[in-house]
Amino acid sequence: MKIDFQTFVLSLASSAMVHLGRVPDPSGQGTQSNLEMARQTVDILAMLRDKTHGNLDPSESALMERVLHDLRLAFVEESRKAAS
């Protein structure tokens, strides 16, 4: 299977969702939150967006913005839960 940019972005997003405890770990260990790893993955996606600025087609750019927005919201929600 050939990997494309959108698949790569979605793979990173899925990893962040696992670290946020929003989806089960693929290893079968249930859900576990690791906010530091989630933050690192979101930061990697933001860096990737910045480094590819002007080189993405409209659908890739829209996906990147949507994924970052959704992950940042989820991160804030999970951070608030952890602080409670």
What does this structure look like?
- The protein is mostly helical.
- Helices cover 69% and strands 0% of the residues.
- The protein has helices spanning 5-19, 35-51, 58-83.
- Helix 1 (5-19) runs parallel beside helix 3 and helix 2 runs antiparallel to helix 3.
- The longest helix is centred in the C-terminal third of the chain and has 26 residues, at 58-83.
- It is globular and about 40 Å long.
- The protein starts with a helix and ends with a helix.
The SSE string, one letter per element, is HHH
The helix fraction, in percent, is 55-70%
Helix count?
3
Unreliable stretches covering 5 or more consecutive residues: none
Work out the number of β strands.
0
Cα-based radius of gyration, to the nearest Å = 13 Å
How are the SSEs placed, and which strands pair?
Layout: H1 5-19, H2 35-51, H3 58-83
Write a short abstract of this structure.
The longest helix has 26 residues, at 58-83. The chain is mainly alpha-helical and 84 residues long.
Keywords:
84 residues, globular
